[in-house]
Every structure is written in structure tokens, then in C-alpha cells.
């Protein structure tokens, strides 16, 4: 490609986007970097060039999109940062604190027992507040202390909350 990025396909997502390895990133900045990179590597820009150049452009576009998917949301970004620091949050290992495991059970029981829409909405509000608290704690674990085991536990808790929020939404919509 004649206008090839200065980065390498093998660079980590943060390097590719020219961003610091931090949890606290401005979503607007991440979006702007993604648009700039896509403008630079989009395969349509290389439609008149040879097949090898077009294939390389396609690889770059896919790589940029994959990185964007990980960096744009706090939980995905945190999971990626944990992975870069040696902890795979999806490796089947439970990294959740016991207190959160108990909280999960209580929320599940509360959802099962909730008869009225108001009760489900109240539980959804509690879960949303817990999510916001966990996101703040996650940023402190990563950016403040670089406590990767604690960050990984928070990521897993947030993943549970996302799945549970889907169940809550289904009950509220149904």
C-alpha cells in the first residue's frame, strides 16, 4: 500500500491507535482515531491497485476494526489490558470475589421473586448503580494501582452484570 500506516499489524491495539495503555480513555478520541485509521486503510482507497495491495488493505481494515471493538467499550478494553498483562479473563478461571458471587445469587433470586414490573425496575436500578461503581473501581485497579488480578475480577463481575442486565431487560420488555 502506498499510504500504509507506520504501525505494524502485530502492534497492540493501543499502539495501533496511538493511545496510552490506560483504562480511562475518551470514547470520542477512540472513535476519532478509528475513523482516521479507517480512512487511511479502507480497501476502497486501493481498488485500482493490484490484488496484493488490496489484500493488505483488507487485512489492515480488519485489524483496525478488531482493535476498535476492544477499545471502544470499558469492559472490553479492561479485558484486553488484563490480557496484555498476563491475565486472561475468559480462561474459565473464576476471578470473582466471594462477595460478588453471593450478590449474583441474591440478584437471581430477587429477579425470580419479582412479580411486578416495579420490582424488576428497582432491581435494574440497583444493578446499574453497581455497574457504575465497578467501572470506577476498575479504572482505579488498572490506572491507579495496576492491580491486574483485582481488575480481572472486576471485568468478570461486569461481564456477569451485562448478561444479567439482558435478563432484566427481557423481563421489563416482556
Automatic annotation (TrEMBL):
Residues annotated as domain J: 12-84
Matching InterPro entries: DnaJ_domain, HscB, HscB_C_sf, HscB_oligo_C, J_dom_sf
Keyword list, A-Z: Chaperone
GO biological process: [2Fe-2S] cluster assembly; protein complex oligomerization; protein folding
PROSITE patterns named in the record: DNAJ_2
GO cellular component, one term: iron-sulfur cluster transfer complex
MF annotations from Gene Ontology: ATPase activator activity; protein-folding chaperone binding
Signal peptide residues on this chain, from the entry's feature table: none
NCBIfam families: hscB (TIGR00714)
Similarity field: Belongs to the HscB family.
Subunit structure: Interacts with HscA and stimulates its ATPase activity.
Function text: Co-chaperone involved in the maturation of iron-sulfur cluster-containing proteins. Seems to help targeting proteins to be folded toward HscA.
Protein name: Co-chaperone protein HscB homolog
Organism listed in the record: Roseateles saccharophilus
Gene giving rise to this polypeptide: hscB
Amino acid at each position: 500500500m502506498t499510504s500504509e500506516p507506520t504501525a505494524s499489524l502485530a502492534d497492540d491495539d493501543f499502539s495501533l491507535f496511538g493511545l496510552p495503555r490506560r483504562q480511562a480513555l475518551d470514547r470520542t478520541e477512540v472513535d476519532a482515531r478509528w475513523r482516521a485509521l479507517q480512512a487511511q486503510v479502507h480497501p476502497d482507497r486501493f481498488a485500482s491497485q493490484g490484488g496484493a495491495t488490496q489484500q493488505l488493505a483488507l487485512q489492515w481494515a480488519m485489524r483496525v476494526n478488531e482493535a476498535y471493538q476492544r477499545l471502544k467499550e470499558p469492559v472490553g478494553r479492561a479485558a484486553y489490558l488484563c490480557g496484555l498483562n498476563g491475565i486472561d479473563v475468559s480462561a474459565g478461571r473464576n476471578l470473582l470475589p466471594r462477595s460478588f458471587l453471593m450478590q449474583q445469587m441474591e440478584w437471581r433470586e430477587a429477579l425470580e421473586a419479582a412479580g411486578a414490573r416495579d420490582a424488576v425496575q428497582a432491581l435494574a436500578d440497583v444493578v446499574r448503580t453497581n455497574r457504575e461503581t465497578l467501572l470506577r473501581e476498575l479504572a482505579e485497579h488498572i490506572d491507579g494501582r495496576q492491580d491486574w488480578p483485582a481488575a480481572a475480577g472486576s471485568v468478570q463481575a461486569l461481564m456477569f452484570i451485562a448478561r444479567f442486565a439482558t435478563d432484566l431487560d427481557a423481563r421489563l420488555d416482556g
